[in-house]
Every structure is written in C-alpha cells, then in structure tokens.
Amino acid sequence: MYASRPSIDHARCTLCGKCVVICESNKLAIREKKLHVLDDCAVCGHCYAVCEAGAVSFVALRPRVFKSFPYNGAYFPPGNPDPSIVAGLIGSRRSVRHYTSKEPATETISDLLECASMAPSAHNDQQWEFVVVRDRAVIASLAGRLLEYYGALNRLVANTFMRRLAGLFMGKKVDQYYSEHYSGVQRRIAAAAGKKDLFFYGAPALIVVHSAMDGNSPLENAQYAAYNICLLAHAMGLGTCFIGYASYLLNRDRSWKKRLGIPSAHGVHAVLTLGYPAREFLKPAPRKEYAARWIG
Ligand SMILES: Cc1cc2nc3c(=O)[nH]c(=O)nc-3n(C[C@H](O)[C@H](O)[C@H](O)COP(=O)(O)O)c2cc1C
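Above: query sequence and flavin mononucleotide SMILES. Below: predicted holo structure tokens.
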C-alpha cells in the first residue's frame, strides 16, 4: 500500500514555503527550520508541482508516459498554449458516426486512457476504470442486445394505450422517450436488418468508463475523464461518440456488466465509440444560444 502523503528530501528542501502555501488541506508546515508533513492527504500533487528544488515526491505517483506521440512532460503555464488552439480543438471535436475499418493501435488507446486519468476529480479520488472492447464480435453482440432492449421498449410505447399506462407509473419519461428516441430506435432497427449497426456505427473499438459509486461525485469524475479521451482522440486523428443508449442499458443489465468484467455495484458513466473518421467535417460546432446570468 502506497503512502497517501508526500515524501520530503530534506537535503534538497530550501524551506521556500511554496508547498505550504499551495497545499489546499494544510497538511504541510515548516517548524523549527524543517518541512513537516502533518497527515495523509488527497495526493493532488500541488506541492510536488511547485517545488523547484525537487524535494517533494510521491511514491504513489508515476510520471506520465505517452507512447504514440512525443511528449516531454512539459508544463504549460497559464497563457499557453494559444487560446485559439484550445478553443479550436474543443470546437472541432464532433460526435463521429462514420468510421473506417482501421483499428486504433494498442499504444494509441493506452495514451487515451493516460490522458483520461489527467481529469479533475472530487477529492482527487480518480476512481475511474476503463474497459476497452476491440473484439468486434463482442461489439456486435452488445449492439444486438441494445436492439433487443430498445426494440422491446419501442413496441411498448408504440401502443398509445400502453404508453398512457406506463406513463402512470413512470411519469413524463415515457412521453419523452417516445418523442425523442422512438424514431431513432426504429431507424436503428431498420438498419440492423441490412446488417448496419447504428448504435456503434461500425466503430472498431469501444471504451467503457465505469467506477464504484461510493466516492465523491463518481459520475462527474468519470465523464470528465471520458471527455479528455474525446479531445485527445480528435488531436490524434481519431473520432469518438458518447453512446448514452449503451450506458443506460449497461447500468440495468447485470449479465452484460459481468461479460465486460464490470462489478455489478459499479456505475457505467460513459460508453465511447472509437475509430478513425470516415467523413470529414469542415467547420467547428455551431451551438444554440445559451442562458447566462452575470452577477456583478
Ligand atoms: C451523455 C451523452 C450521450 C449521448 N448519447 C448518444 C448516443 O447514444 N448516440 C449518438 O449517436 N450520440 C450520442 N451523443 C452525442 C450527442 O448527440 C452529440 O454530442 C450532440 O448532438 C452534439 O454534437 P457533437 O458532439 O458533434 O458536437 C451523446 C452525447 C452525450 C454527451
């Protein structure tokens, strides 16, 4: 078991006090000309990142290693990189629904997971776990399960009487499903008859992000990690798409969770398709007007 606290190399420590100031939980103090670690912490690594002398380290933390592209571990200070690059990247990531048959290399996917784990998380819990599915038979089988599940739901809500009846127990969700998803699911059912998968769009890989539910804000943490994957994937020439249909089903289907090696008590927070885009976008995402209240 790793210590949940920094190790201090006192021979290197200059007692500059920067680590003491940056520590959010006040776990560091300089007393009698010595830096003291007062207690275990959330291992956020802020103290490590401000120490010019290299006196702070964490046994539990390993350096980031990317294998499919060169990265020397450089830190980008505020103001870098150029905001037009960051805004351009964010705006250029799109949900990719057309894939070539080219399979992303193992190193490429490992790098995406590495980047996922750089996301912020409540209390620095970093509880995210990943399942990478590259077996096309498993992807096809899961798409088949989705067809079965949502096909049954569609047959139920297609009937006005059953829709009203289900609405008595489930409220507005039933009407919402009918108006927002019924026709999309029908399209997927029709496509499947022609051997076309419109749940995963023929993607050669899926990344499932899941976690235990007992930490702090597990859903949000995992989704930030998933979004990191989407952004880096775009920069690496890959495409992704969140598949909410699959997350919803996996959270209700114990046998599929088991098949993917996901503990039954875990929540599935994101299912992403992954592959090389077969269609090209030429412009960044337009968006609806948003509401914002400015106070002050
Ligand atoms: C939580 C979530 C679930 C989604 N589920 C699906 C899905 O099941 N199938 C799909 O094709 N797209 C899905 N999407 C993609 C959205 O439709 C897409 O993000 C939105 O239309 C905006 O387009 P863009 O991602 O290209 O900017 C999902 C997105 C999110 C964030």
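The chain has three domains: 7-57, 83-134+204-275, 137-193.
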